């Protein structure tokens, strides 16, 4: 038989080529994805916009009772029902959104204005008074370490413990009366053995929170009121707070506090001493281990948001079960359900602050959508988070941090949507073929480069959107944030992932006792990542141009900018054809930012303006001369140097002052100069004028006093120091300055007795600034020819040692300003008896006097 031919090998199927119909379908799908969204696709976005509008207009309803404030909302709701029954859908939607806006306005106003009749804040005086109260602990103690010692701090800092309590009873003479309301109790020292629900007896100093007394100053009273707290209590020792046993049952709070304390202890034990405080802050929201210097490094580099538990932290917690499901270790539905439980528990564990609550709601919505088999809509999820945060804590939106958190999240969401649209665009077949021929190494390299580009681009977008708000609230611009984000993002993921793994392994080790090595390994990874992250941020902070101070735009412009960004996002998503008009509106808004400055320059007046800044027990006076000059006389207070520098700088920026022609220092008391180092960082200073007795005669490296350290810092900054004495005169703008005391050798006495006394004259009127002058220097001054003045800064903060009656008779002032942190009634009565009107910065805040040929006008910051 002839041999049969060998069987042919089976042929491989030829790769399928896209048919014309398939390519057309892909093109149609890509085009559909590129089409603008419909407003109906994101109903919660429009609801959140209505809620935000209501919160903005809430102050307009401030004068109405709660019932009357709800009336417009009820009318709008009734109108919606009528329109809905008539099936006029567009009108019905409008009325419904109006009802939402008016309801949110009423809710915001009620949260701001309505407090119980017996609220503790109604008994709190403006100036601290002794108090004894019984209260229930609401939160566990939070400890803050003492600030590092510095020669510019007049009162040494101490460790502090802060506890939020709910007041029950208030001691009234020999009896107790019922009270209510929450407040923060601050204790000098460390208190450990208090848990939520404990009944406490507190002896301390009760007062209202500090209101803003200067333009641009942080309003602590408003911040506390937004948290529903109208009073604060200061305790001088841990012995002032005693635990009286269990109070109201708070099982959830006590359990969370116990778990949180255990987690903090585990981190402190497993991680290195350098890494533990940062990991506690980034993972658990416990920033008590961080110093002001640590915060300053993160703030200067624009990375302070890393210290706040937010989206990345919650996302990593939610991703852990999903990763187990991807490895086949967990059913997918069980993984999503476990993610939902873990996210809820984690947000509760870190305190459910607005950034964490926002991220938790978004993550929970994704989990619920996955369990329901639906695709999560991120814009609606973020809007839902905003609505829930407003409903739970309407005052949270007053905090800049909450607004920054949502603005950043919305910007990142927009960048992600833009990237998704680019990926969803139809790719030509030739481009697909080129991509398929690339090696795995090239694909990885291109993917990493693309990730870096998108990461930097997202950071720049966030900086662009949130920059005006950051500059206005915190007065910092940080160019280092964009490159640093590229470096620290993977490190942050390792830090948080290692920290979470440490806590999980520690929990398992507590159950079975064999997971200690795993906890140590995870802690080692987290410590290495934390140290690398700290090194990167410290290097960035030390680099030139990492961050710089700025006055920032006006609040009205920031609000307009935020509204324009929202309008631009809406037009891009829903109405692309309106993009041109929106961009023209944006250009007009940018131009409007320069209008106030140009208007002030064009309408410069011939007034000499003196602003007596309210710094508490201290002194700082801004002199603005006709012709655009600016001189600051003294800059200090008994409070922390960074705080008083911030208060003074904000007041100067609010006045449009961004550089100083001179700083005049009257004498070497800390409460008159300790803000100068902070001002050196914030604005240019051309020269420092003072007496020959202000600084040491020679530079002794061993001299750690405040004047010696300030002298070294001025020399390092290259700022000239000029000595002035009795008889010296000079002009700044069209105002004349004259030194009335002391001479070149001074008098035998204290620093106060040798205070520089400065007279300023313009338009035939005079201002007298005598520093802390007291005996025997004051007798030497009063022996001179009387100096009739229109405005006087009371010597030595209105102290009796400054001879108020004799000084008033010598200079015969018409307006007297007392710069003090407490009432000075005795001095005020002496000046009023001499016919002067007395203004106290402690009572009315910043006092501004405007002097011209027409007379003297006086205005106070608070009525």
From TrEMBL:
Stretch list, region Disordered? 1-40
State which residue ranges cross the membrane.
43-62, 91-115, 304-327, 334-350, 380-400, 406-424, 444-465, 480-504, 511-534, 554-575, 582-599
Keywords of this entry:
Cell membrane, Membrane, Transmembrane, Transmembrane helix
- Spell out the subcellular localization from the entry: Cell membrane
InterPro entries the record matches:
ComA-like_MBL, ComEC_N, Competence_DNA_uptake, DUF4131, Metallo-B-lactamas, RibonucZ/Hydroxyglut_hydro
User: Which stretches make up the Metallo-beta-lactamase domain?
Assistant: 617-821
SMART domains xrefs: Lactamase_B (SM00849)
Stored CDD domains: ComA-like_MBL-fold (cd07731)
Q: DNA repair: is it a keyword of this entry?
A: no
What is this entry's stated membrane topology?
Multi-pass membrane protein
- A Pfam match is Lactamase_B
Q: What is its main location?
A: membrane
Question: Gene3D superfamilies this protein is in?
Answer: Ribonuclease Z/Hydroxyacylglutathione hydrolase-like
Q: Where is there biased composition of kind Pro residues?
A: 1-18
Task: Kindly list the GO CC terms recorded for this protein.
Answer: plasma membrane
PANTHER family according to UniProt? DNA INTERNALIZATION/COMPETENCE PROTEIN COMEC/REC2 (PTHR30619), RECOMBINATION PROTEIN 2 (PTHR30619:SF1)
Official protein name in the record: ComEC family competence protein
Which species is this UniProt entry from? Botrimarina colliarenosi
């Amino acid at each position: 038989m002839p041999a049969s031919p060998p069987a042919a090998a089976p042929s491989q199927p030829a790769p399928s080529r896209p048919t014309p119909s398939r390519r057309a379908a892909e093109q149609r799908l890509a085009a559909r994805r590129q089409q603008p969204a419909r407003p109906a696709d994101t109903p919660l976005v429009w609801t959140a916009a209505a809620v935000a509008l209501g919160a903005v207009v809430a102050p307009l309803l401030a004068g109405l009772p709660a019932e009357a404030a709800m009336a417009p909302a009820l009318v709008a709701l009734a109108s919606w029902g009528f329109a809905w029954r008539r099936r006029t859908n567009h009108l019905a939607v409008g009325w419904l959104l109006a009802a939402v806006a008016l309801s949110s306005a009423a809710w915001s106003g009620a949260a701001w204005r309505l407090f119980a009749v017996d609220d503790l804040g109604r008994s709190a005086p403006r100036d601290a008074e002794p108090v004894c109260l019984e209260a229930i602990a609401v939160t566990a103690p939070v400890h803050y370490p003492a600030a590092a010692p510095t020669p510019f701090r007049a009162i040494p800092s101490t460790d502090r413990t802060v506890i939020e309590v709910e007041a029950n009873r208030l001691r009234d003479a020999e009896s107790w009366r019922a009270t209510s309301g929450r407040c923060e109790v601050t204790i000098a020292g460390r208190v450990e053995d208090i848990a939520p629900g404990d009944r406490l007896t507190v002896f301390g100093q009760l007062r209202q929170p500090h209101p803003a007394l200067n333009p641009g100053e942080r309003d602590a009273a408003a911040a506390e009121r937004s948290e529903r707290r109208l009073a604060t209590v200061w305790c001088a020792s841990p012995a002032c707070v005693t635990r009286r046993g269990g109070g109201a049952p708070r099982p959830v709070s006590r359990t969370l506090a116990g778990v949180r304390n255990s987690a903090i202890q585990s981190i402190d034990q497993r991680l290195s001493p350098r890494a533990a405080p940062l990991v506690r802050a980034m993972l658990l929201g416990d920033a008590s281990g961080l110093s002001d210097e640590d915060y300053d490094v993160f703030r200067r580099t624009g990375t302070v948001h890393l210290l706040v538990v937010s989206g990345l932290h919650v996302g990593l917690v939610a991703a852990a079960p999903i990763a187990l499901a991807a490895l086949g270790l967990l059913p997918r539905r069980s993984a999503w359900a476990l993610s939902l439980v873990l996210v809820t528990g984690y947000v509760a564990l870190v305190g459910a602050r607005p950034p964490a609550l926002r991220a938790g709601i978004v993550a929970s919505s994704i989990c619920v959508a996955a369990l329901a088999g639906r695709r999560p809509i991120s814009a609606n999820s973020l809007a839902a988070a905003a609505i829930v945060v407003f409903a739970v804590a309407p005052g949270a939106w007053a905090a800049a941090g909450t607004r920054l958190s949502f603005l950043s999240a919305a910007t990142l969401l927009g960048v992600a949507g833009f990237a998704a649209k680019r990926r969803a665009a139809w790719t030509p077949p030739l481009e697909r073929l080129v991509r398929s021929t690339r090696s795995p190494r090239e694909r990885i390299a291109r993917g990493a480069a693309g990730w870096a580009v998108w990461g930097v681009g997202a950071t720049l977008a966030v900086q662009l959107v949130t920059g005006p708000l950051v500059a206005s609230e915190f007065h910092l611009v940080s160019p280092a944030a964009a490159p640093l984000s590229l470096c620290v993002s993977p490190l942050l993921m390792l830090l948080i992932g290692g920290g979470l793994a440490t806590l999980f392994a520690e929990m398992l080790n507590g159950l079975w006792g064999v997971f200690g090595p795993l906890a140590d390994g995870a802690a080692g990874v987290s410590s290495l990542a934390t140290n690398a992250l700290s090194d990167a941020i410290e290097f960035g902070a030390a680099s030139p141009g990492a961050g710089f101070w700025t006055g920032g735009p006006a609040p009205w412009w920031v609000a307009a900018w935020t509204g324009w960004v929202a309008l631009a996002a809406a037009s891009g998503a829903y109405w692309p054809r309106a993009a041109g008009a929106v961009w023209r509106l944006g250009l007009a808004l940018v131009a409007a930012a320069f209008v106030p400055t140009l208007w002030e320059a064009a309408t410069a007046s011939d007034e000499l303006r003196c602003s007596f800044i309210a710094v508490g027990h201290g002194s700082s006076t801004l002199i603005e001369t006709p012709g655009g000059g600016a001189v600051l006389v003294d800059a200090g207070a008994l409070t922390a140097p960074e705080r008083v520098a911030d208060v003074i700088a904000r007041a100067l920026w609010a006045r449009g002052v961004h550089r100083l022609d001179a700083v005049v220092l009257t004498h070497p008391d800390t409460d008159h100069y300790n803000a100068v180092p902070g001002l050196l960082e914030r604005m240019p200073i051309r020269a420092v004028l003072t007496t020959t007795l202000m600084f040491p005669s020679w530079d002794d490296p061993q001299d750690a006093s405040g004047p010696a350290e300030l002298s070294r810092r001025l020399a390092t900054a290259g700022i000239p120091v000029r000595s002035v004495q009795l008889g010296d005169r000079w002009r700044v703008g069209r105002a004349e300055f004259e030194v009335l005391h002391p001479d070149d050798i001074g008098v035998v006495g204290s620093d106060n007795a040798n205070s520089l006394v400065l007279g300023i004259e313009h338009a035939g009127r005079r201002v007298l600034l005598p520093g802390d002058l007291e005996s025997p220097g004051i007798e030497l001054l009063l022996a001179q020819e009387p100096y009739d003045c229109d405005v006087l800064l009371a010597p030595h903060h209105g102290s009796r040692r400054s001879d108020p009656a004799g000084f008033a008779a010598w200079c015969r002032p018409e307006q007297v300003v007392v710069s003090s942190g407490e009432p000075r009634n005795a001095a005020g009565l002496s000046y009023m008896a001499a016919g002067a009107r007395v203004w106290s910065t402690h009572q009315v805040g910043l006092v501004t006097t405007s002097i011209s040929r027409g007379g003297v006008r006086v205005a106070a910051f608070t009525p």
